[in-house]
Amino acid sequence: MLNPARILIVAGSDSGGGAGIQADIKTVTALGAYAMTAITAVTVQDTTGVHDFHAVPPEFVAAQIRAVMDDIGADAIKTGMLVSAAAVKSIVDALAPYASVPLVVDTVMIAKGGTQLLDDEGVEAMKKHLFPGTTLITPNAPEAAMLTGMRVESPDELARAGHMLLETGARAVLVKGGHLSGETVTDVLVDGSGVHVFSAPRIAGTATHGTGCTLASAIATGLAQGMALQDAVVRAREFVREAIRNGLALGHGTGPVGIGRVASSE
Prior knowledge:
- This protein has one domain (6-245): 3-Layer(aba) Sandwich (UDP-N-acetylmuramoyl-L-alanine:D-glutamate ligase), CATH 3.40.1190.20.
- The chain has eight helices and nine strands.
- It starts with 5 loop residues before the first strand and ends in a 21-residue tail after the last helix.
- It has helices at 20-30, 58-71, 85-95, 120-130, 141-148, 155-166, 211-224, 229-245, and strands spanning 6-14, 34-46, 49-55, 76-79, 103-105, 136-137, 172-176, 184-191, 194-201.
- Helices cover 37% and strands 22% of the residues.
- By secondary structure, it is of the alpha/beta class.
């Protein structure tokens, strides 16, 4: 029996099912891989926003990671909502023995409704302790602006921010341009080989909750399945675009994306 690629997801739970662990598991499963989890927080969340959250103790997050990695192992690891500096440091320590496993860090800092999901000390800890050696970090434009202190409002500025974040020690940075205005959505990947620009027409629709989690998990799945980084990004972007096309009209706020249709064998 052939086992599927294994993805460990370290992130928060979304009670509304649109983002976080729920979106991660949905994505990994749809792409033919096996999802495991270490829960960092439980949120009170629906389509209108994050109303509250309860952080899981850092030592318990680390214990989840160690249990999964000792028993099952992973072909890629993806992190999302990390809550605090203490949690970041605990996660970094727990992941230290697995430095050879591809790591995708989705820099979840602020919810769509404005709720802060990672405190200021946590942001600094993420930059100092988690970014170095990471395979890929995936900030959106507002997150890139917060991480670099520069304005990020154009494709050129996406690239500039990517170069600045590469200096933190990450091996590659994908700065996402979905928050920028215009009929074209541009994402910029900056890595050791240069700058790679991915553009596509913006898809009309309001069901976009969970796009960031979905994209990062799809990339991590591609890496776990042996894809090169650029190929994993291309497949993940198309998966997310199809998920937006299949968006769900649920709730009274920003509806969740649906499921992409990209074959895992590509």
